[in-house]
Design goal:
The chain is α+β, with helices and mostly antiparallel strands. The chain is built from five helices and four strands. Helix content is 51%, strand content 18%.
């Protein structure tokens, strides 16, 4: 019988709350998914792990923008996350550069996304005028 994804995610997330050797941990997850023929579940599993960690006080947000984030922008993101997650013990902001964003920022959390990029606004405008 196949172990439900949320059970796997909870076990991995619980383990990740402590000190882990990140590269070794990533290899173990990859090996498990390969051996169980569940590679297609990787993205969903990672979102489940992020949600579990957020529920336990470690909020992770991926900040995607066309340009490097300034200290002020990082502070603004952290303030927004503290409003969304008032019980957060730790907020981890992972910046990602994406030139196709053109400008602005997209914040991705476990089960939420806030897209304030110029690309998204242009696409919205395009949909409204079509």
């Amino acid at each position: 019988m196949k172990t439900p994804r949320h059970v796997i995610a909870a076990a991995l997330a619980q383990r990740s709350l402590g000190n882990v050797n990140t590269p070794k941990f990533a290899e173990e997850i990859a090996a498990y998914l390969l051996s169980e023929h569940r590679i297609s579940e990787l993205d969903s599993l990672l979102r489940d792990i992020m949600q579990y960690r957020a529920d336990h006080g470690i909020v992770e947000v991926i900040a995607i923008s066309a340009h490097s984030l300034t200290a002020q922008i990082n502070n603004d993101i952290e303030a927004q996350m503290r409003e969304l997650y008032p019980n957060a013990k730790k907020i981890i902001i992972t910046p990602e550069l994406d030139a196709t964003a053109v400008g602005g920022i997209r914040l991705e959390l476990a089960n939420q996304q806030l897209d304030l990029t110029v690309r998204n606004k242009l696409n919205l405008f395009k949909q409204l005028t079509a």
